[in-house]
Amino acid sequence: MMFSISIVRLIPFGLMGAVNPIFTLSAYAVLGGMYLFVVPVFLFYWMNNRWNVMGKFERLFIYGLVFLFFPGMVLFAPFINLRMNGKEES
């Protein structure tokens, strides 16, 4: 039993707090909120402001983030308009 890990051995490393369900649920809520709400809104804002001036590597990076955070992007897509402003007739 040399390789068994007991709760007593985990106490000095600060891992006892992970056993608390409130801590675990709050961590899931914070990470889920960031994944579904915070980062996708930031990506929409970034793409809307830099669409015409992005370089190829920045665009590749942003497309990778869009792929990674796709569920949150789908949640906000019906409510955000990313169409370009047309030229106003004078």
Give a quick summary of the entry.
The protein contains four helices and no strands.
Fraction of residues in helix: 55-70%
Describe the biggest sheet? none
Rounded mean pLDDT is: 81
Question: Could you list the spans in which at least 5 consecutive residues all have pLDDT below 50?
Answer: none
- Rounded Rg: 22 Å
Computed structural class: mainly alpha
Beta-strand proportion: under 5%
Give the tags.
mainly alpha, 90 residues
Description of the molecule:
It is a single chain. With 90 residues, the chain is an all-alpha fold. The chain is 60% helix and 0% strand. The chain contains 4 helices and no strands. Helix 2 (21-50) packs across helix 4 (70-76). The longest helix has 30 residues, at 21-50. It is elongated, with a radius of gyration of 22 Å. The protein starts with 6 loop residues before the first helix and ends in a 14-residue tail after the last helix.
Task: Give the topology, please.
Blueprint: H1 7-10, H2 21-50, H3 56-68, H4 70-76
